[in-house]
Amino acid sequence: MDALTQARHRMAKVVFDRLGIEDAVLRRIFELLPRHLFLDSAQQHAAYNDAALPIGLGQTISQPTIVAMMTHALAPSAGDKILEIGTGSGYQTAVLAQYTPRLYTVERLPELSRRAQGVLESMGLRNVIFKAGDGSLGWDSWAPYDRILVAAGAPVAPEALKKQLAEGGRLVIPVGGRDSQRLLRIDRVGDTFRETDLGECRFVPLVGAQGYAIEPPRSQDAFGF
Ligand code: SAH
Asked: Structure pTM?
């Protein structure tokens, strides 16, 4: 086993020990997926720590434990049509791409979307459709979705996303304040929505029509102090 593979196996062990879950398929994905490729060279040394890291433009690659927790909660079945909101680095996207050829991902910042697309293509993953835009409104063109995963914190679960869930579908989304949220699993049963609270989490804000307003510049920045 080379050093990178060893580091990935160690990371997977830390993540699954921490979560205390058995999920052989997901664990194998964590052991195989080269997380360092989703980071710039200055961050790559830390790629296999169980930590969130900066990816530029004020955004972060999610902590591996959180990616595992969300994917496990989403529990996609092979072939499910999945929508991801908040592509970011594309790491979580690449995890989801292992489950289905029908994966759609939306990122607000075009530069991040382009970069993630480049990384996935370089890895030979061609089953993902990317869009730069406001994912708080979902992506109506391909709805309904069996699974929707949101990787940014929303003030409330956007109605648009609930509407785009298929019957029996599931939405996993952090909901709460700008700095700290509860991770919710929302299951659609007929026209009702059943919420399960999966615990505390910290995501960057979901910014958009059904999310938060873009943060105003801080007064120090505005006045040049
Ligand atoms: N799972 C990603 C997390 C990235 S951080 C990773 O591990 O890399 C969350 C991302 O959500 C950021 O890139 C941010 O720009 C994006 N985002 C915030 N609001 C959004 C919105 N309304 N629509 C789409 N993406 C959004």
From this structure: 0.95
The three-class DSSP label of residue 89 is coil
Which positions ≥6 away from 169 have C-beta within 8 Å?
144, 145, 146, 147, 148, 187, 188
Residue having the nearest C-alpha atom to atom 6 of ligand 1? 61
Q: How confident is the model at residue 216 (pLDDT cuts 50, 70, 90)?
A: low
Instruction: Pick the catalytic residue from 41, 62, 122, 141.
Output: 62
Amino acid, single-letter form, for residue 112: L
Is position 89 annotated as part of the catalytic site? no
State the DSSP code for 217: P
Distance in Å, CA 113 to ligand 1 centroid: 9
Q: What residues flank ligand 1, with Cβ below 6 Å?
A: 59-62, 85-86, 88-89, 91-92, 106-109, 112, 134-136, 151-152, 204, 206-208, 211
Using alpha carbons only, give the angle 143, 147, 150 rounded to the nearest 5 degrees: 95
Domains of the chain: 3-210 (3.40.50.150)
pLDDT in tens, 28-66: 999 999 999 999 999 999 999 999 999 999 999 999 999
Residue 1 confidence (pLDDT): 82
